[in-house]
Amino acid sequence: MINGSKVLDHPIRWAMVGGGKGSQIGYIHRSAALRDNNFQLVAGAFDINPERGMAFAAELGVAPDRCYPDYKTMFEEEAKREDGIEAVSIATPNGMHYTVCKAALEAGLHVVCEKPLCFTSEEAEELVALAKEKNRVVGVTYGYSGHQMIQQARQMIQHGDLGDIRVINMSFAFGGYNYKIEETNPAAKWRFDPTKAGPSFALGDVGTHPLFIIEAMIPDMKIDNLMCTKDSFVEGRELEDNAFVIMRLKGSKSVQEGAKVYCWASSINCGARHGHKIRVVGSKASIEWDDERPNQMTYEIEGEPVRTLERGAGYLYPEARVEDRIGGGHAEGLFEAWANLYRRFAVAMDAANNGEEYGDFWYPNVESGAQGVKWIEKCVESANNGACWVDYE
Ligand SMILES: NC(=O)c1ccc[n+]([C@@H]2O[C@H](COP(=O)([O-])OP(=O)(O)OC[C@H]3O[C@@H](n4cnc5c(N)ncnc54)[C@H](O)[C@@H]3O)[C@@H](O)[C@H]2O)c1
């Protein structure tokens, strides 16, 4: 159970690049990082507009001499201080992730980076190698994976409760982009600009979330090949607003050879909120999880009534109760899921500083980020070649 007690000698001196006033994702980064006293916000370059960013930093309580106009100045100035930053979170539009992440690693900082980690596999491999060389942690905020029921699913699959995995049916198909929202909403506008968003919209913006969740649920899962078809249903969009992907999996301890994964990534699912659901079908039973009801998961054993497993309950595997913050029956949500990940990032960063192993837990790391980038690349390759099957390795 997490109760806020100290896990590090001192809170990690932490800054943000991006996540400025009015940004969609900035506040949940701060809320998650600061929740358990493992990080202390001491500096920031929060905005593309330097004046607005510095003013916002001051509003957040950052000392005036540590409110910076841009990330380069921040990294340079902080390196001169004895109490300089030790870690930075990157919450800018996608196009800046690679550049800022690389600069941060070169400056010897730990990083928490938004997804997608970067645009190409070459860039991703460079970041993986640099993080290793510098012995720095790169956490990637696949935030939904911090929900406790994801841990439960992972344990159930590892213990063979579902039998061999045969089918995974998943979606992140939200609504609201069924008209030209980008004409009035700046946060939607950059998402359809390939120079700022990368080679995809729906696949990278939302498809990578369920992809990482199934990787977390099934650590021995390996994609053999995949096919993808994508469309821009709203006229004039350079990037897709809807995509379908079918993946064939290799056989492994928990996966039957030839198992299939179906993924629907969309922004034009009229009437839906998130539409982010994952159903894992095994040879004995199935589980299903929905991010809008994250405290529950259905467990369906062939021939028996459907069960609804509840977060915090005594019958869950112990690993699914480690990050319980308040007893079962109380709703925990996305803010807690993110705080769980930030807590794991902090422990991993501290272990790296001390040359220790960080213990028996996982988190979305630089390799997970690289995997997402590769998946987008392969999907785009398939879609651009008439939805052909593309080998994954
Ligand atoms: N993990 C998740 O669940 C999740 C959810 C939403 C968004 N995201 C990701 O978070 C990132 C930001 O998305 P958003 O929706 O918050 O975007 P947004 O457009 O709402 O906000 C972007 C922020 O970054 C700032 N910024 C832009 N360029 C900058 C620069 N060079 N230096 C400093 N600040 C800069 C902007 O001023 C703004 O404050 C994207 O990569 C997106 O994919 C992740």
UniProtKB/TrEMBL annotation:
Recorded superkingdom: Bacteria
Short name of one Pfam family: GFO_IDH_MocA_C
GO molecular function, one term: nucleotide binding
InterPro entries: Gfo/Idh/MocA-like_OxRdtase_C, Gfo/Idh/MocA-like_OxRdtase_N, Gfo/Idh/MocA_oxidoreduct, NAD(P)-bd_dom_sf
Alphabetical list of SUPFAM superfamilies matching this protein: Glyceraldehyde-3-phosphate dehydrogenase-like, C-terminal domain, NAD(P)-binding Rossmann-fold domains
Domain Gfo/Idh/MocA-like oxidoreductase C-terminal: from-to ranges: 154-390
Gene3D superfamilies: Dihydrodipicolinate Reductase, domain 2, NAD(P)-binding Rossmann-like Domain
Domain Gfo/Idh/MocA-like oxidoreductase N-terminal residues, every copy: 12-142
Family: Belongs to the Gfo/Idh/MocA family.
UniProt name for this protein: Oxidoreductase
Organism: Butyricicoccus porcorum
